Amino acid sequence: MERFAERSREAIATVPVVSSTSPSSSNYQCKNDLLKECILYGSVLKEHEEKLLQRLRGLCDPGQHSFNEHEMDPDVTVRLRRKFGGPDANSFQWHFRYMGAAEPDVHCPTIIRKSIDSLIYSSNMMEFVKTLGLRMDYEYLTKGYLFTKGNIKIIINNITRTEKIGTYDPNVLKPLSDSLLIEMSVALPDTKEYMTTAKALRSFADQLSPICDMQKVEYWRRLQ
């Protein structure tokens, strides 16, 4: 798996990049640069969604962006995402993200990991994935909202899965759970000190309590 991940990282780093309009395409990051990401995760029951939105509208920058996207994950370190549905959807344009392993800093209040983001065009994404030596683990559709607070991104995901791979008709789509997935992150240059940024992110995340408890989820341990 490490060999595959390294091949993926090298391939993504050479992909040409263009500007993005997708809310999940890291508008606040330098394209194709190796970045460091501070991130926290949380969840909220769907019945409390409006309370969360009201809190974020009060805390965040004016305005919010909605999105509807399709994601395929061939590996825990690689994510492929594109717009789904709507007049501006482009089935050939994908946001390709490589995510490094979390850094083992027990004193940091957030997850710290490296990432590379690119936009690529492909009429046969599965074939491209195979050339990287990977195979698809799972896919899902997500709808939600993007908020910002300075350089902090807050993404609310309402995730549905398909019971038939490659088919997205409403009759085969099922909710993944009765909760919304919340992601809160900040990206910064790889060489920059991250503890100050991580503490600021943790402080902002605490303002969502008690509606949402944002956590440093050690997901890599659960996958072992």
UniProtKB/TrEMBL annotation:
Subcellular location: Nucleus
Protein origin, superkingdom: Eukaryota
GO molecular function per UniProt: transcription coregulator activity
GO biological process: regulation of transcription by RNA polymerase II; termination of RNA polymerase II transcription
Assigned GO CC terms: core mediator complex; mediator complex
Family matches, as InterPro entries: Mediator_Med18
Sorted UniProt keywords: Activator, Nucleus, Transcription, Transcription regulation
Family, similarity comment: Belongs to the Mediator complex subunit 18 family.
Record function comment: Component of the Mediator complex, a coactivator involved in the regulated transcription of nearly all RNA polymerase II-dependent genes. Mediator functions as a bridge to convey information from gene-specific regulatory proteins to the basal RNA polymerase II transcription machinery. Mediator is recruited to promoters by direct interactions with regulatory proteins and serves as a scaffold for the assembly of a functional preinitiation complex with RNA polymerase II and the general transcription factors.
Subunit: Component of the Mediator complex.
Protein name: Mediator of RNA polymerase II transcription subunit 18
Species annotation: Onchocerca flexuosa
